[in-house]
Each structure stands twice: as structure tokens, then as C-alpha cells.
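Consider a protein example.
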Amino acid sequence: MVIDSDNSVATLISRMWSVQGCEVLSFPMGSSALKTARSYAPDLFLLADNMHDGDGFQVCRNLRLSAVHKNVPIIFMTRGGHQEETTRAFDAGADDVIAKPLHFVELRKRIGLHLQLHSNRGKIEQNKALEKQIKDVSDAQLATIFALAKLAEQRDIDTGAHLERVREYCRILAMRLRDDSPYAPYINQEFIECIQHAAPLHDVGKVAIPDNILLKEGKLSAEEFDIMKTHAILGADNMQMVFNNYSGNAFVGMGIEISLYHHERWDGTGYPDRLIGKNIPLSARIMALADVYDALSSDRCYRKALPHEEVKAMILEENGKHFDPEIVKAFVSCEAEFASIMAKSAKHAAP
């Protein structure tokens, strides 16, 4: 849109850009231009400081007040290129200033540059909007998955806020291992976010365990324990069906690892596959310690919660047996955070 009382300028612009497939609207008066701009969204304004009905600087300010046009580039044309007019133009909201008489090559270059910048800005805004939509969908999916994991957890009356706590323990351990451990090269921000969101899926397979076994107050028989152990495979198998359709989803992939292997032990005496040492996925090794700490620190129908120092001693006793020594080292370095999370959870749960 060209706003200038000098008709020769509009003619020049029309000839210059019509051959490029652009539509050029010209107005000798600011009032008529502003009126048309209410229902028309040009990609660029070429605005003069002289027009039949008033001040071009005020027209520029009015355009900047419009929600529709506040980001549309404005090239201001001044007479003689005086510094005072240039300053006033920028103060009014212009993106660029060019002096009359206009030079064809310079004008073409400047208009082309600002049109490209405006186009790029629009693409960036579209990408931001798309990213927000994707994030909203992703957040909704994670919330839904967590809700389903919570639903499975509700069958076990002893677990309380177990899922909320273990996801925090896993996040803290992963961050500490990233900062100071031989595993640092394998732990990035994506790994930390994945383990935080995947941790609640570790016992989702328990939804298929009969109540008489899952809720039994006494010690399980050998046969009952064999059935209980199947929850690791059942949970992983169900997530595998999801992963088969979304094979690039790191979150689901880690959920399978954690569900299947969080009961494996560093010394190879765990289940279901009796994996040894680093053959156990790192995510599952982290989950193993987080899960045991929370289980020992929580009330159960058959015993009261153990104090932090006693749980810490038991974990240290299992260093190199049940647990990866590097993960035990990370736990010791952040044990105060574990204790704080458990204390806050217990306080929140108290009547």
C-alpha cells in the first residue's frame, strides 16, 4: 500500500512490483488509506510525510496502534533526507526511511528486503503456533498416560503418591549422573525428560495381577510370587504394541525398558531375564533404586515406613549387588533431596 499525494511515486511502485505478481494499492490521503486498511492487510506500507489531508507521521502512528498492522513493515519516504524527519519517522514506528527523490534500484532492494523479512516473520509465528499446538497435544497425551498409570496404582492401597515421588527421584538421579558420572555422555535433556515421564509406567502391568495376590498382606508363596513377577512382562508387552506404531517415540521406548527391567539386579539375580551389570538399560537401573527407596520409605500394610538413614544404609549394603555403584554414588550425593520429597509427601498425606 502506497500512501502519498505524489501520483508519480504510486505509478513507479506499481510498474516495479506488478511484474512480480504483487498487487499495489495507492492513496493520496491518509484517511482513505486507514479506512481501507481496516479490512485489508498489505504486506508492506510505503508512506510519505506529505499528503492531501494531513500528517504522514500520525498515519504511521495509527497503523502501529492497529493489532492487524503493528508488525507490518513501514518504509517512510522523507523529503531531502533531513535528520529531523528521519528521527520523527522512526519515532512514529517506521521500520526504514528512504529519501526523495527515489532511486529505482535502492527502492526495489529495500522493498524486497522488508517483504522477505515480513514473510520470514510470518513463518516464524506460524512455527511458534504449530510448536505450541504440538506441545499442547503432547502435554495432554502425557497427562492421559499418567492418569492411566495412576488408575492402575489405585488398586494397591499402600502406594499413595508413589508415582509422583519416583518420577522426581528418577529426574534427580538422572541430572546428577549427567553432571558427574561415566554415564554423562549418554544423558541429555531428552533423556531426563523421558525418564521423568516414563517412570510412572514401571508397574502398569500390575493392573493384570489378581487382587488376591496384589493385595495380599502376608508373604507371597513361590507360586504367587511367580505370578506377581509377570507384571514386568505384561506392562512391557502392552507398551510394545504402542511402540510398534510409534517406533520413533523415545518416551514409549524408555517406558518399555523401565517396565520390563526395573526388577533386574546389578549382580544378575533379578527378573525377568537375570541381566547383569550394564546389560540392564540405564533407565531401568535408575528406576530400580528410586523404586526401592520409595518402597522402603513408605508405609505398608505389613510394616511402617523406615526412616531415611535406615533406608540409605540398606541401599549402601546393596551397592554392587542390587544397584549400580555409580547410581548409588549419585544417590548419596543427592540423598537430602530424596528425604525432602518423602517428608513433604508424608506431610501432605497426613490427616
Observations:
- The chain has two domains: 2-126, 154-349.
- The domain at 2-126 is CATH 3.40.50.2300 (Rossmann fold).
- The two ends are 69 Å apart (CA to CA).
- The chain has a mean pLDDT of 84.
